[in-house]
Every structure is written in C-alpha cells, then in structure tokens.
Q: What sequence folds into this?
C-alpha cells in the first residue's frame, strides 16, 4: 500500500505473518506479526477485502461456499488450511451488494484482548471496470453496534 498527500508519504504491507507501515519511508509507525492471533486476524482481512473489492474471487469452489440467509442476505464461508471465515452480504433488490459484516478476530478494543468483534462496511457508487461492476466508495468501520437487528455505525 502506498499513499501520498502533498509531501507526506505512507507505505506499508500486510501479510499472514506481519504488518508494517512507514511514514516518509523512514519512520516505522506500525509493526505487528509473528503470532497465531495476527494470522487469524489477517485471514479475516483478506476475506473481507475479497468480498468488498474482488467479488469474482469468492465464487463457489471446494473452499468457498454460499448460504442464503433470507431474501436479501447471503453468507459466504471461506476455508484455508485451519482457518475459516464467514461474511454476511446484504444486497439491494437489483442484486447490487450494499453491506458486508462479519465477526473479525481483533484486539481493537479497550482491553487490547484478541476476540471476535463485529466488523463491516457499506458499498456504494458503483462503476464498471473492464466489464466488472465494482464499488468506488466503501465505508469500513470496526466499531459496529447492533440495534433492533439492524446495523448502525458508532462514530
């Protein structure tokens, strides 16, 4: 990942084994890795990114299965080695994906303890790229609150 705004540059990488980000290519601002918690968390991120950005990557195959939850929601479950991650996908009446949510293994909580926590986001502003329709705006937030069986982002 590389991002630039004016003179400020941020770069980094994320893998099953580690995450590392640098400011201006000189100052390390994040480094994590090496443990089972990180591997499980990274797998959840990979699956979520596939559902958000590359829907063809989650077509059914021996390690990927889909289950209908109701008229406008389905769940994809992806298995890799000893890891399993399920993601719920909500679609509009025209079949366009609008919302993704799942339980992610993370320590992003006040106790800094790894546990399953709600994670997800909203997809909008779809455009065609090489014949594939993809969102150009995705709002992702790991602080979700469920009220009345509907999902609301806590800001």
A:
């Amino acid at each position: 990942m590389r991002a630039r705004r004016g003179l400020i540059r941020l770069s980094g990488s994320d893998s099953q084994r580690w995450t590392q980000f640098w400011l201006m290519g000189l100052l390390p601002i994040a480094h994590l890795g090496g443990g089972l918690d990180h591997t499980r968390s990274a797998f959840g991120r990979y699956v979520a990114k596939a559902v958000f950005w590359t829907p063809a990557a989650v077509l059914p195959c021996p390690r990927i299965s889909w289950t209908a939850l109701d008229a406008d929601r389905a769940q994809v479950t992806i298995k890799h080695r000893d890891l399993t991650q399920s993601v719920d996908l909500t679609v509009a009446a025209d079949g366009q994906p609008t919302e993704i949510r799942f339980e992610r293994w993370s320590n992003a909580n006040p106790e800094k303890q790894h546990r399953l926590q709600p994670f997800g986001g909203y997809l909008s502003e779809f455009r065609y790229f090489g014949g594939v329709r993809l969102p150009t705006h995705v709002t992702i937030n790991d602080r979700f609150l469920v009220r009345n069986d509907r999902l609301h982002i806590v800001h």
User: Anything to note?
Assistant: The radius of gyration is 17 Å.
